[in-house]
Specification:
By secondary structure, the chain is α/β, with parallel strands linked by helices. The protein has 2 domains: about 25-135 and about 195-320, P-loop containing nucleotide triphosphate hydrolases (Rossmann fold), CATH 3.40.50.300; about 140-195, Orthogonal Bundle (Histone, subunit A), CATH 1.10.20. The chain is built from 15 helices and 6 strands. It has helices at about 1-20, 40-50, 75-80, 95-115, 125-130, 145-150, 155-165, 165-170, 180-190, 220-235, 235-245, 250-255, 260-265, 275-295, 305-320; strands at about 25-30, 50-55, 85, 115-120, 210-215, 300-305. The protein has a 6-stranded parallel β-sheet, with helices on both faces. Helix 3 links the parallel strand 2 (about 50-55) and strand 3 (about 85). The longest helix has 23 residues, at about 275-295. It is globular.
Length: about 325
């Protein structure tokens, strides 16, 4: 009897293994790249061509009222292709990577049920990887005493400390954002290292069949500068003033970082208009470099130069 049970158990295990290996995973197109690379435009074009819908993977585009400074697709563009995970959060409250992944997973199911193809499009590499690879992010509770101690240090001092303790994370973090620096150091204090895409213990096999497409134009710095100038012409300063009027605190705006932090400094009178523009361009270029540092670790990304090349890869991936 026991031998029969063992035989049946082994047979069951082999059957389950066979089924797992042969289950068709949902197909997803991931379009990634640094800021100002043109990924949003490409996402819309390819999604139109292949009956898709876009899931925005941008840590700032989730917030309502933050349109210009995040490079959010316009309402007209959203009418061309349905977009998910845009304008879903109040900027006064923190929207976490867990919030993103839970909503994005639901969106993938809904899109697939409608017979459409999900396109994950964005530049927040950690969000994309957390969704596709189901990263097991450790829940580290706030350490109030440590935070109070670290808060006394400047952003420069915090960055130096992070660089010594976790050089890999230092390459991808916004070095002037004290909130994120303190959080990174808090996690290191709790578990010894900030989990990343290359951390074996935090990465699980993907539940999706993914085609990775990347954009990294050679003239990126010029594109970034042009985009920043366009943002200011379109009312970037007015957007930040409106956030303040809507009771988003200056502290919270600084936490959101990049353009918003620098414009908030201008509004408070600590820098002039010229310095604001120069600092925003520098910050956005540095951010683009950090994004590329993150993406370059993923050897599955096919870097494309134009929509035609992307379309050919999608055709091949879908077997059409």
């Amino acid at each position: 009897m026991s031998l029969l049970m063992v035989h049946l158990s082994e047979t069951a295990i082999h059957s389950i293994t066979y089924l797992v290996k042969n289950i068709k995973k949902p197909k997803i197109i991931a379009i990634i790249g640094p800021t100002a690379s043109g990924k949003s435009d490409l996402g819309i074009k390819i999604a139109q061509k292949f009956n898709g819908e876009v899931i925005s993977a941008d840590s700032r585009q989730v917030y309502r009222g933050m349109d210009i400074g995040t490079g959010k697709v316009s309402k007209q563009e959203q009418k061309l292709i349905r977009h998910h995970l845009i304008d879903v959060a109040n900027p006064r409250r923190r929207f976490s990577v867990d919030d993103f992944t839970s909503r994005a997973k639901r969106a993938i199911v809904e899109i697939s049920k409608r017979g459409k193809l999900p396109f994950v499009v964005g530049g927040t590499g950690f969000y994309v990887d957390a969704l596709i690879y189901d990263l097991n992010i450790p829940e580290v509770p706030p350490n109030k005493s440590l935070r109070a101690k670290l808060q006394k240090q400047s952003a420069e001092q915090l960055f130096v400390s992070l660089k010594k303790q976790d050089p890999a994370r230092a390459k991808t973090i916004e070095r002037h954002n004290k909130v994120r620096l303190i959080r990174a150091l808090e996690i290191i204090d709790a578990i010894g290292k900030v989990p990343s895409f290359s951390t074996n213990y935090s990465q699980l096999p993907s539940k999706y069949d993914v085609l990775w497409l990347g954009l990294n134009p050679k003239n990126l710095e010029r594109r970034v500068a042009t985009r920043v100038q366009k943002r200011f012409r379109h009312g970037m300063v007015a957007e930040v003033k409106k956030l303040i009027k809507n009771k988003v605190s200056l502290k919270r705006i600084s936490e959101i970082g990049l353009t918003y932090r620098i414009v908030a400094d201008f509004i408070q009178g600590t820098i002039d208009k010229k310095e604001m523009g120069q600092r925003v361009i520098r910050a956005e270029i540095q951010y683009a470099k950090r994004q590329m540092t993150w993406f370059k670790r993923n050897k599955k990304i096919a870097w494309v130069k134009d929509p035609g090349a992307a379309e050919r890869l999608v055709h091949r991936f879908l077997g059409r």
